[in-house]
Amino acid sequence: MDSRFFTIPLLAVLLPLNQGPRAWAASIPPTVQANGSLRLEVESAITRGTRWLRARQTDSGAWSEERTPALSALALLAIERSGLSHHPEEKAAMEKGFRFLRSQAKADGGIYAEGLSNYNTAISLLALLQHNDPTDQTLTRKAHDFLVHQQASQMIRPELDGGIGYGPTGVSPKRQHPDLDNTVVSLEALRAYELAEKAREQPPSLTSLDWKAAIAFISRCQNVPETNPQPWVSISPSERGGFVYYPGFSNAGEIEEEGGRKALRSSGTMSYAGLLSFIYADLPKDDPRLKAALGWLQNNYTLAENPGLGKQGLFYYYHLMSKALAATGSNTFEARGKIQNWSHELGIALINRQEADGYWVNDTGRWMEKDPVLVTAYSLLTLEMLLSHL
What we know:
Elements: H1 10-14, H2 21-25, H3 36-55, H4 69-80, H5 88-103, H6 117-131, H7 137-149, E1 164-165, E2 178-179, H8 180-199, H9 211-219, E3 254-256, E4 262-264, H10 268-280, H11 288-299, H12 314-326, E5 333-335, E6 338-340, H13 342-353, H14 372-386
Antiparallel strand pairs: 1-2, 3-4, 5-6
């Protein structure tokens, strides 16, 4: 495995606090910034997308559904990182949006409306940390502690211990178990909080996650039989290293192996989520589980679809891909026996999918991707992440 993988600090994955991608790009060596033409096109796409997004803010300060403040938090993150946040109209939209976000804080420390409390809290915490307003420190500390306390333990199904799910409020029982998607967004928010507190020279929080238990949960979502002996784990080389949604279930369905044995198929979104989760949990880069994850992603690299799921969740797949591949510290990625310029290819893919008015939308509606606000926020965050690698 290339020794360049995961040599940059986690801060580069999360983006420096209170800096947009243009400021971040200034710290990247000039050799990484060779494609000036594409950079200009990406910057133009970001500008048009940001202004479209800002214009879709409601009178309450929210975007899309008020009962899902994470949608507003994603929009705020995208605008904050766009490089336009100092412009009067964008700045006013952000101030109004953060007032709405703060209004969703609950007595238990979470930031949510009716349900999906962990997911909403994690994304909202990321947005507040990026905004870096000193008056939010009590709010962010409580949100951090809320997330930590939602880590599963002593579950009836012990393979679910260590993960984090949607949360206990307003959700049907079948969605109260941990899953890899909620785990990755929670781990990202918790690590971002730690970095923010360290930057402020604050003492570590007395409430901390059981990171070993989190790593164990992530491992139990991975198709690696040596480290995950559950009966559903695939023994097929084509599935090795990929991830499923939670232990025992994959949105990509099953495959039939030799002797009629049933195993779970890995998916693109969850495999990037698994890789990122291992990175956030500080798994050593030479760990065989991390190497196996990279191997699956190299063998299944594509921008045409979300592997295992087709067009379902395609823009979220791009979003997770940009974060994970940015963590390699390189704008290229060895995949399928050749060097892929992932940042160049992903930039072009998103530019080609941008509508004339500046927004993005998926014609396949799974996971809310027919909501142009959500998909535009994903796309902007993806472009903002890869901009410094062009």
